[in-house]
Amino acid sequence: MRVYLAGPDVFLPNPQQRGEALKAICARHGLTGVFPLDDLGEPEPAEWASRPLPHRIALRNEAHILGSAALIANLTPFRGPSADVGTVFELGFMRALGRPVFGWSNGGADFTARTLDFLGSATPDGEGWRDAEGMALERFGCLDNLMIDGAVVASGGLLEVADVQGTERWADLAAFERCVARAAMVLRAA
User: Fold this and answer.
1) Between vectors from CA 22 to CA 17 and to CA 27, what angle results, nearest 5°?
2) Dihedral sign computed on CA atoms, order 174, 177, 183, 184
3) pLDDT of residue 57
């Protein structure tokens, strides 16, 4: 069973090595991991040739998603309090296809705590917090924005979270392995 491995892992110093490590974990659990940098397995459609590189990359990733039965997303906060925006798009794309999505994160604090930490200051308003522009902060205790958590749960997927500090959050794959093991059980039972 093919699962698309969404996440900011493509930005790591050795993304191909990371992709192979993720795919090896998937294989141990009977899944075929598909990393965003993988070839499509067939030539790109001719109409893609005239498009700029970023658009071809997006189309390739969408093709990988369309060819996968499920998606496992690395939701570790990336360059801010939330998950990588491209990863979130891919998660939503798979959810819209009606297929299961699973998530893992090495950021143990909930979204509200991470947002407060990121902002540095916020004003309590009796019901929660407001930022410097007067905008309310989400306060639901979710891993990330409620739409992300909600999409995972509604799809039949699950979230696996670890609290890994510093740069180790980009190396530690224990939460990923737990997520893959649980995803494999859910997918086999379906």
Assistant:
1) 120
2) negative
3) 96
Beta-carbon neighbour count of residue 140 at 10 Å?
A: 12
Enumerate the β-bridge partners of residue 29: none
Residue indicated by tokens 């740069």: 167
Are 87 and 157 found together in one domain? yes
Reduced to 3 states (helix: H, G, I; strand: E, B; else coil), residue 18 is helix
According to the model, what pLDDT value does residue 64 have?
98
Q: For residues 178 and 168, what is the distance between their CA atoms, to the nearest angstrom?
A: 17
Specify the pTM: 0.97
Helix (H) or strand (E) holding 71: strand 70-74
104 and 78 part of one domain: yes
| Whether residue 102 is found in the same domain as residue 118 | no
**Domain, as residue range, for 82:** 2-108+145-189
- First-to-last alpha carbon distance for the chain, in angstroms, is 12
CATH code of residue 49: 3.40.50.450
Confidence of residue 99 (pLDDT cuts 50, 70, 90): very high
In the numeric block, which tokens belong to residue 125?
Answer: 């308003």
CA 48 → CA 43, 45, 71, 92, distances in Å? 10, 6, 24, 23
Residues 57 and 131 in one domain: no
Judgement on whether residues 133 and 64 belong to the same structural domain of the protein: no
In the chain, how many domains are there?
2
Residue with tokens 């950021």: 107
Q: Residue 182 CA to chain centroid, in angstroms?
A: 16
